[in-house]
Amino acid sequence: MIQKKICMVGAFATGKTSLIARFVHSVFSERYYTTVGVKIDKKTIEVQDKKLNFIIWDLYGEDEFQKVRTSYLRGSSGYVLVVDGTRYSTLEKAFNLQIRVEDAIGKVPFILVLNKWDMTNEWEIEDSEIDAVIQKGWSVIKTSAKNGLGVEEVFQSLAKKILDG
């Protein structure tokens, strides 16, 4: 079995912990939990006839007071860059974080996740902005930790990128 470390990165309250709970345990909670430091989960998935054991590091959300520690990123085979579609500022934060992650660990596969797709009536990110990100060559997947939309696809896609890399 192939073991791979994956980091969840993004601004605070983008849904990183909820996405992991949906992916690993198939649950969603309306309660908001602040991640302190890092929380680690595991899940085995099968991709291209190979079993991958994902060790998923849920890093605390970055805000103006707290920067993500690059030491947490070391050894990552890939990462998920999480954006809250109802807060445009989290997309700008994701652009900055992507540069910092790449500076820390080099170019490794990642997926940009536009979370909270179940709340499109509150969406602040325009389709043109999503298209611009795709034009940069980034993989973008819309998700909802609440109803599960796209969550499995994120980790399957990241696994394929890692295996093909």
UniProtKB/TrEMBL annotation:
GO molecular function ontology, one term from the record: GTP binding
UniProt feature coiled coil, ranges: none
PROSITE patterns, A to Z: RAB (PS51419), RAS (PS51421)
Pfam family, one: Ras
Annotated keywords: GTP-binding, Nucleotide-binding
Name the record gives this protein: Rab family GTPase
